[in-house]
Description:
The structure holds two protein chains of two kinds.
Chain A: H1 2-30, H2 37-54, H3 59-85, H4 91-112, E1 117-118, E2 127-130, E3 133-136, H5 137-159, H6 161-171, H7 173-178, H8 183-209, E4 211-212, H9 216-231, H10 236-257, H11 259-276
Antiparallel strand pairs in A: 1-4, 2-3
Helix pairs in contact in A: 1-5, 1-8, 1-9, 1-10, 2-3, 2-4, 2-8, 2-9, 3-4, 3-8, 5-6, 5-8, 6-8, 9-10, 9-11, 10-11
Chain B: H1 3-27, H2 35-53, H3 57-79, H4 84-103, E1 114-115, H5 122-140, H6 143-153, H7 155-160, H8 165-191, E2 193-194, H9 201-214, H10 220-236, H11 240-257, H12 265-271
Antiparallel strand pairs in B: 1-2
Helix pairs in contact in B: 1-5, 1-6, 1-8, 1-9, 1-10, 2-3, 2-4, 2-8, 3-8, 6-8, 9-10, 10-11
Amino acid sequence: xxxxxxxxxxxxxxxxxxxxxxxxxxxxxxxxxxxxxxxxxxxxxxxxxxxxxxxxxxxxxxxxxxxxxxxxxxxxxxxxxxxxxxxxxxxxxxxxxxxxxxxxxxxxxxxxxxxxxxxxxxxxxxxxxxxxxxxxxxxxxxxxxxxxxxxxxxxxxxxxxxxxxxxxxxxxxxxxxxxxxxxxxxxxxxxxxxxxxxxxxxxxxxxxxxxxxxxxxxxxxxxxxxxxxxxxxxxxxxxxxxxxxxxxxxxxxxxxxxxxxxxxxxxxxxxxxxxxxxxxxxxxxxxxxxxx
Amino acid sequence: xxxxxxxxxxxxxxxxxxxxxxxxxxxxxxxxxxxxxxxxxxxxxxxxxxxxxxxxxxxxxxxxxxxxxxxxxxxxxxxxxxxxxxxxxxxxxxxxxxxxxxxxxxxxxxxxxxxxxxxxxxxxxxxxxxxxxxxxxxxxxxxxxxxxxxxxxxxxxxxxxxxxxxxxxxxxxxxxxxxxxxxxxxxxxxxxxxxxxxxxxxxxxxxxxxxxxxxxxxxxxxxxxxxxxxxxxxxxxxxxxxxxxxxxxxxxxxxxxxxxxxxxxxxxxxxxxxxxx
Lengths: 292, 277
């Protein structure tokens, strides 16, 4: 039973990982907490659902469009929050990104309704039963995709021109600009990537639980933030480990103390972390966040 | 007064009080996304005193204010060690901790909610709101108020000039928490029922949003923000979902056009009669 909880936790954690990585990227490079991420997570799931069920598109096509929509939404957010507000007080872009969260969520409610919808999947009930454990294949795929994508991202950050530019901006946006980094092209690229990451998280969430609603973003938002903090803001591998730890902690505490108390445990741990060890378990190594 | 107008007035009054609860730390440069948590502490403390000890309303509200203010002080000192994003997230975690903790406390009703036996009429709620506006307007022109502004404008420079930055931040945070407690207590006493889920992070976030929309440089800003937020459905004759769409769009555009909010010092200076420019 314990082993099953651990497996469930790991699989749950893979979703938090994607959200945590999206959060940590914009924090690490721009020192900007992008609160529109939960809305983009939801957009990915809800738009894919609408395109499959309401528009009758083939599954893969709908999912691809859902991903693209996540990227585009994230680019719109970039314009209105980061680009036009980067010289203001840091609370201003943050609150603007929250406004996008509210906007996207309520626009979806207006047009697609506030109900929980069944999310169709092209494959049937797919579980592996091994050594007394039940492992769902979609969830296993989600874990694989999450870790695979982070591996790719890691290599992009380390080896490519884009990665070098992003790391330069993380050190100092002004110096990077002086040295010829075109921040007006690099930063949107970052938002586009993080938007697609997040939307993919939403789609995987929908595929795993076979349902979507306009509120799925809120359910994972704080867990994604927690994953980011525990891993150390700006550290993508930290966010991966943090996400998996949150997933395991959640499924274990649901098992032992019940769902309602599980939340309290996670928030208490988060608050303690922020007060005692704000740099998280692994500090900020991958992309350095600049601090005041 | 019609029931409709009374309801609107109560909503507006409570929104105004929590606006100042978020405004005070913001005026000292600290974004508190846990205001609803402090409201919950006030609401539950007042309800508990009213239900079990049968205290009169003004006494329970006073005690609730002290309780949430004390919580603000206790939480504020360690939490305010964190800055910027860390502080925002710590306050957010605190608010959610209070909410989910209360949800599990069975002696105050747990998930079923908690009826409140005492009652505060709309006159009392509106009166307290007026008092809070007057108090903050006064506070803003005291030495503490000036120090708060200095800390927000430039923390390092303020420290250089001998402002005890940490104490100023903690004071602003704790007084804000105290106001949030008053708002929570009044909310519970007016609507006769509270539940932990009401005081969630979404609530805290809306409060911060309308305060930043109004502007954090002047005392008039939060008032305008709260007025706008409360009256959107009335102004535009729209339903609840549209209300949030309109609010979000207005906020996004306003932040681009006036990042310091609708009312800032410059605007007040210009509006002042008889001053040559």
